[in-house]
Structures are given as structure tokens and as C-alpha cells.
Amino acid sequence: MADNISNPEGKGPAGGWGSVKSIFRIYGESSPPPAFLETLSRQNKPGGFMCVSCAWPKPKNYHPFEFCENGAKATMWDLTNSRCGPDFFKKHTVEELKGWKDHDLEMTGRLTHPLRFDHATGQYVEATWNEAFQKIGATLKRLEKKSVVFYSSGHAGLEASYLYALLARAYGNNNLPQSSNMCHETTSVGLTKVIGSPVGTIVWEDLEKTDAFFFFGQNPGTNSPRFLHPLQEAKKRGAKIVTFNPVIEQGLVSFVNPQNPLDMVTGNETKISDQYLQVQAGGDVAAMLGICKTVVEADDAAVAAGRARVLDVDFIAEHTTGFDKFIECVRDTPWSDIVRESGLTEADLREAGATYIAAKRVIGVYGMGLTQHSQGGLNIAMLVNLLLLRGNIGREGAGCCPVRGHSNVQGQRTVGIAEKTKLIPMDKLKELFDFDPPTEDGTHIVDAVKGMMAGTIRATISLGGNLLRAVPDQVDMERVWAEQELTVMVSTKLNRSHLFPGKEAWILPCLSRTEIDMQATGNQSVTTEDSFSHISGSIGKRTPASKQLQSELAIVTGIAKATLDHNPKLKWDEWTRDYSLVRNLIEATYPDDFKHYNQRMFEPGGFYRGNDAHDRKWNTEEKKAVFTTPHQLNALSFEDAPGRFRLITMRSNDQFNTTIYGYSDRFRGIEGTRDVLLMCPEDIAAAGLREGQVVSLVSDFEDGKHRELGGLTVRAHKLPRGTIGGYYPECNVLNAIDHHDEMSKTPASKAIPVKIVSH
Ligand SMILES: Nc1nc2c(c(=O)[nH]1)N[C@H]1C(S)=C(S)[C@@H](COP(=O)(O)OP(=O)(O)OC[C@H]3O[C@@H](n4cnc5c(=O)[nH]c(N)nc54)[C@H](O)[C@@H]3O)O[C@H]1N2
Ligand SMILES: Nc1nc2c(c(=O)[nH]1)N[C@H]1C(S)=C(S)[C@@H](COP(=O)(O)OP(=O)(O)OC[C@H]3O[C@@H](n4cnc5c(=O)[nH]c(N)nc54)[C@H](O)[C@@H]3O)O[C@H]1N2
Ligand SMILES: [Mo]
């Protein structure tokens, strides 16, 4: 292993006893019932429930406990004994709760009753479901259709999501922004442009056959820990792993499998990355170009020596377009530019290139480190360029692997949650439900936030999530969110978005996927789609946290019935009684993807919806896979300037997005606080700061607007110069809503231009 991999800050490998301790610490804090272990044993298995956390796929041959530290925490978080009911709200006004931390808000436990905000007292008060639906329906009828937004975070199953999108369209708009607008929208738009697929191209078996993984800005140890199992297997059979990440992430350094008793007793670590390259934030375009340059040079040498080609020339000729122009750019770009823009040495990039060339089959894995940049689309196009050079897409053991976030974030898109009309079979909707679906594109998150700021968006319904805390320009967002006519939040736990109620505001508490969803025809199952486009059924068996809870699907149909004019084709009651009827509708709308849906939903590992790019069928404009010539060498929209830093917003090991489980980021050695600013020692010294000093960050975005976050303690961390780190969501006050990926409008959360101020 190259000796550039060490983790001075971290506290031992990913997984291992640290992972078990961390699960049980949350267990203690969230106090779930003892039957919790029985529940965990059913997680991610046929006949069990699908994890409420991330979208990592479920293998056919599952482990005795098919869950990870992250999933176990998420399940416990839902199964807590704590309750946040009407009594709690009698004791606390929202003004008071605004002073609470995200962690403390969610620690109050599961929401138990529908709640209405009372402006006279500044408190939420208990309401009935009927009252909630009727009032919401009446207000929606009154509002201008275009001024209403139907947001969803990727939790809800396919059935509720399909009906939610139908509700929006039958109401009269396509305003269906989703959490992926802040996340993998760059993939949906960028990957479609170059390979014609909005999702990744690999399946589980490819993980077992690949010779090398190239990781760009994805952190499996924290965010998709079950990925560490196939990575460990891959390492055992000699596969290579090369990682590009400004931060040394422990899960990409070493792993002790907490499900392997021998490994646990012996502390047997598997080294994960063979080479770990600390690229600067936003420097991946140059880094990937450097690898491509190594490949082209090796190909030139092979041609000169009469050896076999390094480029897959047959594949390139048959399947791609744009090759010549791209190669010209590769040849013309000097190493000095590549080194400057990536922050890496030529030798290191050549070593990565040699690994790439030596591998017959390569998988390119990526996450937020590529997507959340001003040129996120270019980042993804560059990764595709690299893979195409050696035919590494649409072949066994090779492909493109964006790792998705929420458990059903990909699936919600598949069944119609999308603001772009071209993605939706509107003719089918018309045929099935006998109404004219709206023809105008709806709002993306960025448009929705800007609409709130401009006063054109007047109401938001949220199917899950914590939008106010997840978007940039949070200070403005708090003001304009509360100025809306109506805010409706379908939630499991209390969060900051609830504390800025609109003129009329409702919290509607829903079941978690672990819980029994009893309807007239019995306990209902739901389905979700994972990152590999596999669809799996899920059945909850726990007693619901409160008798008052309704399923997400029942809440959607409750609102729909109270809002829409009668249409005999919209059978909200029937669908609520029996979710299999909704699956029939999904199958009728998307027959190629969901054939024999009800029969196949419990197949081990889920059933595969298929992917054309996986079969080398390219649904791009050119009907080929596209080589993209980069127009710049980094992923930023700003230049370096004196005193300006690139701020990465990070996830700790102890959070799921805006849900903060605790204050232990043990892989990075940060305990008891999230109010930190990570910088390399050289930058600390050059800026005249010292470790332990408390500083503020201020925005250095082109609009010149004042945005500030104070109270951050400077900590030395192994980072590239010029790149600094702080936590998401706290740092969202520093980002501008206009600072986003050019192509897809995904907020650029991984290189926010900031200055450091010490008072
Ligand atoms: N425990 C836990 N699990 C989660 C989540 C969670 O919050 N907690 N969130 C879920 C969701 S919604 C999502 S989308 C996924 C997110 O999972 P990831 O995609 O892993 O997201 P992040 O941790 O935000 O960032 C990934 C990595 O990018 C690196 N990075 C930052 N900037 C750059 C760059 O310019 N270049 C490169 N190469 N790397 C960079 C960071 O150091 C980090 O290691 O995880 C899901 N799973
Ligand atoms: N600066 C910065 N900003 C970011 C990111 C970043 O890396 N940096 N990441 C972005 C990404 S990748 C994402 S996906 C977004 C996340 O944005 P969101 O999806 O909006 O936020 P979450 O934190 O996942 O939402 C948490 C809330 O969801 C509710 N919830 C939990 N489980 C359920 C359920 O089963 N059903 C329902 N109805 N509600 C439930 C709970 O009330 C909980 O408080 O944030 C984005 N924002
Ligand atoms: Mo995400």
C-alpha cells in the first residue's frame, strides 16, 4: 500500500468494534424497544423491510444481518420510545424551539398527532385528520395552481410516490422538486446527456467481477457502509482501488467487517485503497484528464512498438462520438496545467493511470464530491470519458456507479416525481385517468426557492424531508418559507422546517417503513428501488409509534380527495385499501420497467428494471456514447484569490443528512462538537491563525451578499491547501442559491467560496 495513506486524525478502521459501539450508543440515546434486534434481522431481506436509510442495493445472497452501522442507526431512530406529541407543543413555542439544535429537535421522538400551527399562541396544537385534509384541500383550491410546490425527500415508497405525482398533475402543475435536485440531479441530467441513462449502469454481479474501482468523491464508510463488504471481497481477490478525495475518509482506508466474527476478534483489517489521492476540491476534471493523458501516451507507445492497443478502438469506433476532439484536448493540455488544477503530482496521476490500464474491467464510483459543483455535469462527463477510452461501460465487471442517497430517491423519479414533462408519459396518464396533465415544466428546487423569494411560490407540501435546512441561503429561506400561505409537512420527526410555519401550517405524522401499515385489505407492503435499479418489496411488522399515524400513501390520498374535483377514474379510496392496485397502475404506466410487478416484488435481491446503457444501447441525442471535450480544467465557477478558500460541506459518521444522531465523527477524530473548521496546518499558519481559535466564515460569492457563520473552532486536518471543511447542514447559511451546477442546478455544496474572519 502506498504510504501516503494514513489517517492521523481517525480512530481506527471503518466497521469493527467502533461501529458496534456507535450503534449501541445511539441505541441507548434513542431507547428503542428490546425487540429492535429482531426487527434489524429482517432488514433488507425478502419478506422483511427495506432499510429506511440509503439506497445501496440488497444482495441476493444476504448476510444473517443485512444492515450496516448507518442503517441500524436509522432504524433505531424510527423505533425510539420517545414521543413528540401535543403535550410537548403545549410546553414549547416555536420561537423557543428555534434555539434548539437539530439533534435535540429530533431527539424529542416520533411525532404522534396531526398538528396545526396556531399563530395566536405561537404553538402547534392537536388537530384531527379530517380537519387537516379539509382545510388543506380548501386552501389548495383557493391558491393559484402554479404557486404550489409538491416537494419530496426520497423516503416514501413507489406506491405513495406515484400517487403523489398524480395528485400534483391532477391538481394542475408539474412542481415536483425532489431531494435529488440537491444531490444526484447532476447524474440525472449529466449522465443522460453522455450515455443516455439517468442512473448508474452496473449491477451487483459487476462488483464481483471488476478488476479496479476508481472512487471520486463518495464516502462508503459513512454513507453506504454495506458497500464495504463487496469492496472487501474485491480486495481479497486482488482488485485494486484508487481513491480521489480531498479528505482522508477512513472507510476508504481500511475496514474490519463487523459481521465477520474472526475479523472482529483478530482485528483483521482489510486495506481498501491502493492509492489515495487528495485532489483539491473541484480538481477532478484535471485529475481525470491526467489519467486519460497517461492512457493516450501508453496507446501511442503501443502503436509505435506494434503491441496491442491500449484504447478500445473497436468500441470507440462503433459506440462513441466526439473522440477526436477530446483526444486533441488531452494531447494539448500540458501536465503543468493538470498538476496545478488537480493539486496532484504527475507521478501520482501516472500511477493511477497505470492501474487503470492494467485493469481489464473498471468501475467508476462517484458521489457528492463530483455532483455538487458548479461544473458537476462536466465532472461526470469526464468520468465517462475515462471509462469510454477502454470500453468500460456496458460490459461485465465495468461501468458507472453513482451511489444514491435516500432509500427510494431513484425510484421516486422512476414513477413520475419529476418537474420535467419530457420525462413523463403524459399520454398514458391521460388515458388511464381521463384528465389533461399540465404541459408546462414545473419547478426544480432552485426555482422553487427563488420562487419563494420572489413571492410566486405560495405553498409547499413536503412528503418527508427538511427542505429549509437542506437548501442554500438558509437565512433568507427561513423568512420566505414562513411567508407562504400554506406549509404542510408529512414527517416522522420534528425538524427545523417545522419551526417556520406558513400562514397556515400543518405537521402530518406518518408511519415509518418498519411499522405495520394496516388498511382494509390487511397489512400493506410497499416497494423501493435501489442504486442498481432493482425493485424490492418491504413489509413493516412493528406496532406503529402512535395510533394516530397514517401511511404516506393514505395522507396523499387524503389530501387528494379533499382537493380535487370528483373524477371516477381517480379511485383514491380503493387504492388506499389495497396498494397492489397502485402497483398495477405503475405497471400500466411504465410497462417495460414493471412487468409482473406484484408477482416479482419479493424476489431475492429485487427485480431488475433494466438499463439500456448497461446493454450498450445509447439513448442520447447522438444515439452514441459521447466524449465531452472539457471547456475548463476544474469544476468551479470562481477563480482562486488571496484569502479565498474552497469550503467542502461534510457529512459526519453520526448523521443522516439533516438528522443529527450525535456528536461523534469518530473516523475523523472529532468528538462532542460540529462547530469546527478543518484546515491543513500550512493554511492555518499562512492565515495567521492557530488551532483552537474561534473564527467565522463569510461568503465570498460573486453577488457580494453578506452571509456568515460564526463560532467555528479551527482544527488541523490533513487536507490539500486551499480546501477547508465544515459540516452540512450548518454551513448552508454560507452558500448562495445561485451557486449551482450549470447544467442541472444542483447546489454547489462542495466548493463554496469563503473567507475566514477572526474577530
Ligand atoms: N450516514 C449517512 N449516510 C448517508 C447520508 C448521510 O448523511 N449520513 N446521506 C445520504 C444521501 S441523501 C446521500 S446523497 C449520500 C451522500 O454520500 P456521498 O456521496 O458519499 O456524500 P458526501 O459525504 O457529502 O461527500 C462525499 C465525499 O466527497 C468528498 N469530496 C468533497 N469535495 C470533493 C471534490 O471536489 N472531489 C472529490 N473527488 N471528492 C470530494 C468528501 O470529502 C466526501 O468524502 O449518502 C446517503 N447516506
Ligand atoms: N451544504 C450541503 N447541503 C446539502 C447537502 C450537502 O452535502 N451539503 N446534501 C444534499 C442532499 S444529497 C440531500 S439528499 C438533501 C436532503 O434533504 P432532505 O431530504 O429534505 O432532508 P433529510 O434530512 O433527509 O430529511 C429529514 C427529515 O425527514 C423526515 N423523515 C424521515 N423519515 C421519513 C419517512 O419515512 N417519511 C417521511 N414522510 N418523512 C421522514 C423527518 O421528519 C426528518 O426530520 O440535502 C442536500 N443539502
Ligand atoms: Mo442525497
TrEMBL record:
<dbReference type="InterPro" id="IPR037951">
    <property type="entry name" value="MopB_CT_YdeP"/>
</dbReference>
<dbReference type="Pfam" id="PF01568">
    <property type="entry name" value="Molydop_binding"/>
</dbReference>
<feature type="domain" description="Molybdopterin dinucleotide-binding">
    <location>
        <begin position="645"/>
        <end position="752"/>
    </location>
</feature>
<keyword id="KW-0479">Metal-binding</keyword>
<keyword id="KW-0500">Molybdenum</keyword>
<keyword id="KW-0560">Oxidoreductase</keyword>
<dbReference type="InterPro" id="IPR041953">
    <property type="entry name" value="YdeP_MopB"/>
</dbReference>
<dbReference type="GO" id="GO:0045333">
    <property type="term" value="P:cellular respiration"/>
</dbReference>
<dbReference type="GO" id="GO:0051539">
    <property type="term" value="F:4 iron, 4 sulfur cluster binding"/>
</dbReference>
<protein>
    <submittedName>
        <fullName>Molybdopterin-dependent oxidoreductase alpha subunit</fullName>
    </submittedName>
</protein>
<feature type="domain" description="Molybdopterin oxidoreductase">
    <location>
        <begin position="110"/>
        <end position="490"/>
    </location>
</feature>
<dbReference type="GO" id="GO:1990204">
    <property type="term" value="C:oxidoreductase complex"/>
</dbReference>
<comment type="similarity">
    <text>Belongs to the prokaryotic molybdopterin-containing oxidoreductase family.</text>
</comment>
<dbReference type="GO" id="GO:0030151">
    <property type="term" value="F:molybdenum ion binding"/>
</dbReference>
<dbReference type="Pfam" id="PF00384">
    <property type="entry name" value="Molybdopterin"/>
</dbReference>
<dbReference type="InterPro" id="IPR050123">
    <property type="entry name" value="Prok_molybdopt-oxidoreductase"/>
</dbReference>
<dbReference type="InterPro" id="IPR009010">
    <property type="entry name" value="Asp_de-COase-like_dom_sf"/>
</dbReference>
<keyword id="KW-0408">Iron</keyword>
<dbReference type="InterPro" id="IPR010046">
    <property type="entry name" value="Mopterin_OxRdtse_a_bac"/>
</dbReference>
<dbReference type="GO" id="GO:0008863">
    <property type="term" value="F:formate dehydrogenase (NAD+) activity"/>
</dbReference>
<dbReference type="GO" id="GO:0043546">
    <property type="term" value="F:molybdopterin cofactor binding"/>
</dbReference>
<dbReference type="GO" id="GO:0016020">
    <property type="term" value="C:membrane"/>
</dbReference>
<dbReference type="InterPro" id="IPR006656">
    <property type="entry name" value="Mopterin_OxRdtase"/>
</dbReference>
<dbReference type="InterPro" id="IPR006657">
    <property type="entry name" value="MoPterin_dinucl-bd_dom"/>
</dbReference>
<keyword id="KW-0004">4Fe-4S</keyword>
<keyword id="KW-0411">Iron-sulfur</keyword>
